[in-house]
Amino acid sequence: MSKKATLADRIAKARVLSDPNVADRARRGVQAFVQATTQEGVPAADVVGRIADGSAAQGIGRVGLSAVQTGGFACTSGCAFCCILSGDDGGTITEAEAVALHSALAPFAGEPDGRDWNVKACPALDPVSRQCRVYDARPMICRSYVSTDVDACEMVSQGKASDGPGTLDPYHTYLAALGLSRAALKGAKRVSTYALARVAAAAVEDLPLEDALTKARHAPSELDAELRRSKRDLSRAG
Fold this sequence. Notes:
- By secondary structure, this protein is mainly alpha-helical.
- It has one domain (about 5-235).
- Helix content is about 55%, strand content about 5%.
C-alpha cells in the first residue's frame, strides 16, 4: 500500500459489525491516527503496520478510557475475581498488546503464578498478593472491565450470572476500531488477534515470543464473534 490516499479511502469504505455510533467513533479514531502519524513523518508502511498490529485501536481505546469518570467502582488492588478466566482464552487482545504482555511477563518465567491461587486465574497474577505483575502492560480488556459490586464479581467468577461487572464503552470502540482495521487492510496486511490467557501462560512457561504468538493466535472468526458479543452487550445496555 504505497499511497496514503489509498489507505484513507480503504478506512472510509471499510465496514465493521458494530453499533453504528460505535463504528463511527472507531472510524474517526483510525482516521485521526493516520493523520497524526503521517504529520509526525511516520513512513506509510509503518503507519499500516501500527494499524495492523492493533496499536491504533489500542490508542483509541486508551484515549476513551482517559475520559471515563472512575467514581463508584468497587475495584480494589488484590480483588482479583475478574482475573479468574472462563475457558483457556481469557479475552481478545491485539498483536501489540500480546507482544507487550509477553515482554513484561517473561522475567517471571518459572515462578508461581495466578494459577497457584486459582487454577483458572490469569498467569499474570501474583498468587500471594493477587495483584497483576504486569499492570502497566495489561490489555484493553483488563483496563476496561470494572464492577460496582465485589460480591457480583465473585459470583461471575463461579460461572453465575450477576449484575455489577461489565466493560466500559471505550472497549467497544477499541474492538470496533480493530475490526475496521482488519476490513480496511484486507488483502494488504494481516490483522490478527490473540488469546490473552495463552500469551500469558506461554510467557511464564518461558516460550519465546514467536512461539507464544503462534500458540495464542486466534482464527479470524474469533474477532467476528467478539464483535457480535459486543454488539449484543451494547444492545442490552441501550
